[in-house]
Amino acid sequence: MKITYSPKGINNFHNATPINLCISGLTYIDYELHNAVEYYLISPRQRRRIEKHFCGVEGCACPSGGVTELFPGEYAIRKSYCK
């Protein structure tokens, strides 16, 4: 499944352009929050690609594209930031 990922606000601190990704389409819904948040699961390689694209500045403390680590080694991006 092809998507265009464009995080909003602080998650795109350096105002980078959107990035195109090919993902599996698997989703995860976090019910722990008051409003359930839906995520697309991504690979560790895609996580590195997103973080490098949206920041790439060594030592920067920005959220680097808003990638969420759901579980150790399991990464996701918010579905609401995708087209």
Q: How would you describe this protein?
A:
The chain is 13% helix and 33% strand. By secondary structure, it is an alpha+beta fold. The protein has one domain. The strands form 2 sheets. Strands 3-4-6-5 form a 4-stranded antiparallel sheet. The N and C termini lie close together (11 Å). The mean pLDDT is 89.
Shape by Cα distribution: globular
DSSP E strands, number: 6
Kindly name the structural category.
Answer: alpha+beta
Beta content comes to 25-35%
Average pLDDT, to the nearest integer?
89
Q: What number of domains?
A: 1
Number of helices: 1
Rg over C-alpha atoms, rounded to the nearest angstrom: 12 Å
Percent helix, as a range, is: 10-25%
Order of helices and strands: EEEEHEE
Low-confidence stretches: none
> What profile does the largest beta sheet have?
4 strands, antiparallel
Strand order of the largest sheet: 3-4-6-5
Kindly report how far apart the N and C termini lie: 11 Å
Topology:
Elements: E1 2-5, E2 19-22, E3 27-30, E4 37-42, H1 44-54, E5 68-71, E6 74-78
Antiparallel strand pairs: 1-2, 3-4, 4-6, 5-6
Name some characteristics of this structure.
6 strands, 83 residues, alpha+beta
